[in-house]
Amino acid sequence: MQKKYSQFTAMLAIAKGSLRSIFRSPSTVLFSIVFPLVFILVFGFIGDNGGISIEVAINKNADTINNPIYNAIKNIPSIHLVNDNDSLLKEDLEKGNITAIINIAKNNNGNPEYTIELKSSEAVNPQNIGVLESLLKNVISDINTKRYPQAQTVAAISNKIEKIPGRTYRQIDFILPGQLGFSLLSAGVFGVAFTFFNLRQQLILKRFFATPIRKTYIVLGEALSRVLFQMMTAVIIIAIGAWGFHFTLVNGFSTFLEIMLLSFISLIVFMGFGFVVSSVAKNESTIPPFANMFTLPQFLLAGTFFPISYFPKWLQFFCNLLPLTHFNNAMRNISFEGASFISCWRDVGVLLIWGIIIYAAAIKVFRWE
């Protein structure tokens, strides 16, 4: 007896086959599952910070033993206490890396019991100083309400804020290094991946073999054109930033040359990822998903658009493993803080280690046909 055809069974079979094909598609999995999760995690961590974060230091001579004001400041989520030696604190204050150094002094006459003095610099955003003063006033008000209901106030904030000279840290000084890194990484990965994949698919590389030129020079010729173009792009980005938005080049032309050297080394490293992608991609449509596996985590986690200090400590560990993080760190140190290329040897060293690893992988997987 012939078994009756089941529409329901056929529908389940089609659904099963379709579902299997979806999971076998890297682009579908990445864009439907992985990328949304990455965005949720990243921006979720940013949201957990609860707003503005101000970095301050406590004067070494401040009265901190059993001090209610000091204990209250330590517990404010928006205030991060920095503990360094005096010379480093002075340097951070001059650069605007910390908002102020707080001194809590006990009054001999006892009225009020404490005086709070702030030491800041011209490089600090005045808005941050205002926020810090507001937070300190709230601390004093809370202590007055809970522990000193009969006193006028437990402490007073000095009206005079000592300011030392310093360079103004503009938004462009953070944004431009990240955007230059974004440009170099995008060009190194996507540009190289599409270029060599198309050369292979169109049998151009195979035709090169009919000529006397060696394989090494084929790769170097293609890579050289990419490097020259991207270096010109880097010059344009830096020039527009410096002349149009007052991007800081501390030592002028010498700083510019050191940035270009750093950009050149970083671009060579980033191009290694492009060689890997061009070799593992089966067709042109799979290049973007594979390329985004290398680029997207770095765009989000390497301090490209916002500081990695926004993330929890465990995630910062992974952020500091990414090559783009070390490019961003080194460039910001060279451009704004006046560090030399050699003094950034740790960041440059990590980039070179990444270069060795990725080119070892590229040599292993690279295909000519």
Could you describe the 3D structure shown?
With 369 residues, the protein is of the alpha/beta class. The chain has two domains: 54-164, D-Maltodextrin-Binding Protein, domain 2 (3-Layer(aba) Sandwich); 171-365, no CATH class. Helix content is 62%, strand content 8%. It has helices at 7-23, 26-47, 68-74, 86-95, 126-147, 171-201, 204-208, 215-245, 253-280, 287-301, 313-319, 323-335, 345-365; strands at residues 54-58, 79-81, 100-106, 114-121, 155-157, 162-164. Helix 6 runs parallel beside helix 9.
Tell me the Rg in angstroms.
Answer: 28 Å
Number of beta-strand segments: 6
What oligomeric assembly is this protein in? single chain
Strand content: 5-15%
* Distance N to C terminus: 55 Å
- In terms of structural class, how would the helical and strand content be classed? alpha/beta
The gross shape turns out to be elongated
Helical percentage: 55-70%
SSE ordering: HHEHEHEEHEEHHHHHHHH
Please work out how many helical segments DSSP would assign. Answer: 13
| Average pLDDT level | 79
Task: Report the uncertain regions.
Answer: 47-51
Q: What is the domain total for the residues? A: 2
The biggest beta sheet is recorded as: 6 strands, mixed
